[in-house]
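Fold these two proteins, one after the other.
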Amino acid sequence: MVRQRVRLTLHITGSFLKYFALAYILPLCVAIYYGEANWYIYLYALLLTLGVALILEFGFKTAKEIERTDGFTIVAFIWLLVALFGTLPYVFLGLGFLDGFFEAMSGFTTTGATILTGPAIEGFFSLPRSVLLWRSLTQWLGGMGVIALFIAILPRLGVGGSQLFDREFPSPLPERIRPRFSTTARLLWTIYIGFTAAQIVLLCFWARLPLFDSTCISFSTLSTGGFTPTVESIGFYGNPVAEYIIMVFMFLAGMSFIVHYHVLRGNWRAIKDDEFRLYIIIIAAAIFLLILAQDFGSYRKEMFQAISIMTTTGFVTADFGLWHSSAKMVLLALMFIGACGGSTGGGIKVVRIVTLIKHTRVMMRKAIFPNAVIPLKYNRKPLPEGIVRDIISFLFLYVLVALVASVVLSFLGLNVETAISAVAATLGNVGPGLADVGPSLSYAWLPGAAKVILIMCMWFGRLELFTVFMMFSRHFWKG
């Protein structure tokens, strides 16, 4: 059983990597267009990735069909290897392997935590443009999901593809646009591409940002990633129009794309969704509290940071590490809460918060009327009890991982604020933290062991813990 599962995992991983290698074509073309001397690094990365992919695909052929349990190992392993091979351009440029792996994992998991530091050239990182584009492209591919993309364009996986789709988009309330998972993946990616193109056009022609910058920023916005070509993030541009455009698209990216689909189809009742309403309430409350803690005259910065952190995008227009401690506590809470389920954002997700609030209300009523039958409803429909148990288990595991990782980082020499915020920012796929990993700083100074822990936090957080943790279960491998 174990041998068959490993063989199937390697075979499917090879099939995905074969098509993933094509992603290097875009930065290769950009490097050639700008006349960069080391354009060949993308060609080397493409050929190396393709070679390994073909070895895995044809060397581990199997007739075994993808089952539910196989989905866990395949998805977890694909995400690990995609980040590993995404490291190649950084390594070929001379960046250390661990730092390159950190940057690549941060990109594909749409975390946005970076190890890049100065010196800056006219505000931009001193890197070739092709590399800056590659950073944002990794986030864009990871936002809607690399596996969902391959399922959308290559529906040959059959029924087993649904197991991969569900593992890449684990949700307490699974919902598909269409019964066929491949159709759902195609529709989600169509909306995603449409929003990305719309933002590029608006930033380029309305906000008057350069096309290259508009493209990189849009890739990182819709994926709620946070990478930018500039050292000072969005604050570098000092462009209010661009900031408002980015705020709108960060807000849209933090919503469930299922809601987007229904609204675009004319079903405006979808915005009455319980999760969406709480999403708006939390953002509005956070903006009010940040303005109250800071300055009523600078509402745009507070609004931008509230939306950026809530959606786990991580763009920055102000050094919120210097803000009042009450404001930093609000931002830290938003890092843990995260965006909506079915979005490209990370964190615990608003859907889990709203479900637990409803569950608490039911339990309080049952304390008064112990014999009453009070169903738990979400969007006016009863929820199975198993969903609540799953959410409680997830929340417990999330807090446990955050606690253990924070303690270990503290033993490695990080102060409490830095350790907790670094874990919250990577596990929630947010990016910038507080204190020594604040928005004006990077993660480059961390010891190697700390970087490894945070890389694991990014991986765990993007796949929502259970997909990865199942691989460490003895019963999982026996099943």
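Now the second one:
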Amino acid sequence: MLLRTVLGESLREIRVAEGRTLREVSGAARVSLGYLSEVERGQKEASSELVQAICDALDVSLSQVLLMVSEKMEAAELVTRLPVVRSRAAAAA
């Protein structure tokens, strides 16, 4: 799971929850609509300045977004971590 993917998902969730369009947020953040779309889809690695501008446009703090990202990544790590089970043959060798 890539940080840029989870960050993009989180920004999109916030934007959609606010009922805002890509066009509205891109204008307020002063970033192209296409670039914002790529950030939301996890295709572009956004600079910290750009992430802050998007957060300002969404009227959400950067710390709230990073907390959301952190919680999602932690949940994904817990789900994907599987215990290592060694076979008896491997353990005997």
